[in-house]
Write a structure and sequence with these properties.
about 180 residues, Four Helix Bundle (Hemerythrin (Met), subunit A), two-stranded antiparallel ribbon
Length: about 180
């Protein structure tokens, strides 16, 4: 991803603001919704049998991944999703993350984590969602409002808040709905 240095500068500035105790209400709300979605996915996954954990979930394009791999996938991409929002918040475009790149990353992840255990996936989900929420709490309102071209939105200039909502926040809800549909519950 490009503009990593800018994202780091944005993160440092946000950390100073957070230390001053001035958390944005919008950032807090976004962070709470990330935590809520991750907690919902974790609670549902925790109750699954080993057979259900290995059940294949059909996805767009005719691909499928086991439930456990999807839970681990959601956990794994939180840091990436937040970093993309930080880049946009710094006013820099994200141009090198395409849906083709995402599909390749997802495919590689599925192969590398085909036998992921429930315990490992849930531990990572809890840890990374909490870290993502903490990073989102550090955004200022101005950063949330900042817009820049975003390749996953076909180059449209979207806000950092949109990137947070459409990726880090929505991701667990999206996959939980697909998992529930697959398992019929």
């Amino acid at each position: 991803m490009n503009s990593t240095a800018s994202a780091t500068e944005t993160s440092r500035g946000s950390e100073k603001l957070k230390k001053a105790g001035s958390t944005s209400r919008r950032a807090e709300s976004l962070a709470q919704r990330i935590e809520e979605g991750a907690a919902g996915l974790a609670a549902f996954a925790e109750a699954l049998s080993e057979t259900e954990w290995r059940e294949a979930v059909l996805e767009s394009g005719g691909n499928s991944r086991p439930v456990g791999v999807i839970v681990h996938h959601v956990a794994t991409v939180y840091p990436i999703e937040v970093q993309l929002a930080q880049i946009i918040a710094s006013g820099n475009a994200v141009t090198d993350v395409t849906w083709e790149v995402v599909a390749q990353l997802n495919g590689n992840h599925a192969k590398e984590n085909a036998s992921i255990t429930k315990s490992a996936a849930l531990d990572l989900l809890r840890r990374n969602s909490q870290e993502a929420a903490a990073a989102v709490r550090a955004f200022t309102d101005d950063e949330l409002d900042q817009a820049a071209p975003f390749s996953l939105s076909f180059g449209a200039p979207v806000t950092a808040q949109f990137v947070i909502e459409d990726h880090a926040l929505r991701h667990s809800w999206h996959h939980l709905a697909r998992i529930r549909k697959t398992l019929g519950r």
